[in-house]
Structures are given as C-alpha cells and as structure tokens.
Task: structure prediction
Amino acid sequence: MMLAKQDGKRHDFVVGMTHRGTGICLHSNPVANEAAVRALEVHCAKRKYAQRTSRWFGVSVGLNAGMQFGVTLEFPWERSPTMDELTRGMKSYSSLGKAMKTVSAPWYQRNLGAVRDAPVAAA
Result:
C-alpha cells in the first residue's frame, strides 16, 4: 500500500496457502474502477492456474487501507495451452510463513508502530 501511495500505481501481494487448493491476491489500487476489477480478475485467474488450485480470492485495498472490492474464482483446475503461455515466467508467490516473517521484521515493526500510535479519528 505504501508503494501505491508513493507512485499512484497498482501493486500486488500474493499468498499461496499451505492447504493446496486456495490462494489470495491482495491489490493496492489508487482507484476502484472497472479496469481495476478486471485487472484483479485476470491476475487471480493467472495465479489460480499457475498454482493449480480450485479456488482463489482477490481483495483490492485502497490507499487508506479500506477494502474496495473482492473477487472469488472457484472452479476445478484444468490444463490450458493458452493459460500455460500466459503464466509462463510468472514470479513465485509468497508463502504465508514468509509473509508473517516480513510482518515481524524489525523495520516493519518500527513503521507499524507509528501507525498503531496514530490518533484515530472519531466516526
């Protein structure tokens, strides 16, 4: 989300679950529009295919950390020459364990501490 605030572009974070058959993409989007929904759908479809899962979720988060929209893809995995080509060379996803290590890293905790200590606006 911090990168999206800095450059105004969409950024992704992908986690493949330990339990085979499920994964999730988190997108940080400056704008929630039809193009952003389509980009998340396509990204989820490619990840779902590359990981050979039957279910994949996508969540779009705005620059203020609010959820914008979500996507659920749930259907059996099936080989496709077209999808083989589209997913060739994709970066690997992060494991949940790796993501948790990132969240517990000292630099992350220092930055997170500033967020935790920030005053909360009245609703």
